[in-house]
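User: I'm curious whether this sequence folds into something compact or stays loose and floppy. Could you predict its structure so I can see for myself?
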Amino acid sequence: MRPVYPFTAIVGQERMKRSLVLNAVDQRIGGVLIRGERGTGKSTAARGMAALLPEIDVFADSPFNDDPDAPLTWSDWVKERQSAGIDLKVVKRRIAFIDLPISATEDRVVGTLDIEIAIQRGERIFEPGVLAAANRGLLYIDEVNLLDDHVVDLLLDSAAMGVNVVEREGISFAHPARFILVGTMNPEEGDLRPQLLDRFAHSAEIYGIREARERVLIMERNLAFEENPEKFRKQWLDKEKELSHQIELARLLVDKVTYTSRDLLSIAALTASLNVEGHRADLVILKTARAQSAFEGRKSITDRDIALAAELALPHRIRQGPFQQAVVSEEELQERIEQLQGSTASAGEPEPVAEDEDHTPHFDKKKRPKPHLGARPTESEPE
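Assistant: Here's the prediction. I'll summarize afterward.
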């Protein structure tokens, strides 16, 4: 197994790293499309994220990584064995990193049912595909814009529904398919159709770093990693463990994060003011804001959480022109949210009733530090 470059050692690209972390906190968000130049660390970041995710409980022989604590999501494989009285042993397993080849066919992705055996013996024999292996893991698609549109549709459907159902000749088989979907692409090689682009929850546009000192830092760290991968990983082990533990705690907290009617109104007013089509963006912003709050150890979302979420959810859904993608910063989004709230109040509309008395209406930058992922080490930290 080849060594993996530490996620926390990646220089810059904060928006991409934040999106990956938040999708790790809540896989229901719906994945990220990373658009950028060649050699900007897209695949390195995805592999690094998968490597630091905590181990999960699974049934020992399950090819679907079924969650023993979530019976409502169990595959037909588990249900059949339970009905037969077979004892299912629970073990720990590392999060899977599944790399989908561009040449993947529909059967390779969703799996296949052996119709001949089903007809002759009355048995359901299912050959698992990529979606089965990726369940509760990370599914990575390099150059997603070069993948067949029909296959991309299948992947995005499964990511949205969290289940894969294969039906052939009246016979069906279902298994959970919830994963962190990471697609990368170089826009110079062609774009995705708008319908598919919208299906990705987040979009992160990344560029080569222009600041000379940071470029030097990238070279130094890469050379150190190539010379002695194990030594380099040990230098960053404490930071990796710290981030892994923070993600693990956030996963436990995210379903407890509350929001108010006012928060929902802020999200709806923001997307409406930017003429965002459909309602997927609103839901993505809410889920992402809750994940951001959980990652920072809080139980209620703030305007800043909404702005940070919108920064990831809106760029690929807002266009300044036919071929130009909009770039929206967190500060611009937060300012727009405050303006919208002000205009709502001045119009005499009733203030929505808060559902959580601890809700913080506005983010105070002096009191609440921004999340600090993969920052440059200080003098006491490894270089």
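Summary: The chain has two domains: 7-206, 257-346. The CA atoms of residues 262 and 352 lie 5 Å apart.
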